[in-house]
Amino acid sequence: MSRIGKAKHRFYSGVASALTMVSVFVVNSASPLFVYRGETPEELLK
């Protein structure tokens, strides 16, 4: 593999790792924000 090919591989691997970290952060931060509401709307009960 040439130097450019290795550089591209390292760049794309870094981008994939960064996107993975962002997605894990978003999923983990969204979970505590979910608030369960026990009451079901009347429209859904029909």
Give an overview of the whole structure.
The longest helix is centred in the middle third of the chain and has 31 residues, at about 5-35. The chain starts with a helix and ends with a helix. It is built from 2 helices and no strands. By secondary structure, the protein is mainly α. It has helices spanning about 5-35, 40-45. This is Cyclic lactone autoinducer peptide. Keywords: Membrane, Transmembrane, Transmembrane helix. InterPro entries: AgrD.
Mean pLDDT: 84
Number of strands: 0
β-sheet strand percentage: under 5%
Give the helices and strands as they follow along the chain: HH
Structural class, from secondary structure content?
Answer: mainly alpha
* Number of helices in the DSSP assignment: 2
What would you call the shape?
Answer: rod-shaped
Q: State Rg.
A: 21 Å
Q: What's the layout of helices and strands?
A:
Layout lengths: L2 H31 L8 H4 L1
Characteristic key phrases:
46 residues, mainly alpha
Short description:
The protein is mostly helical.
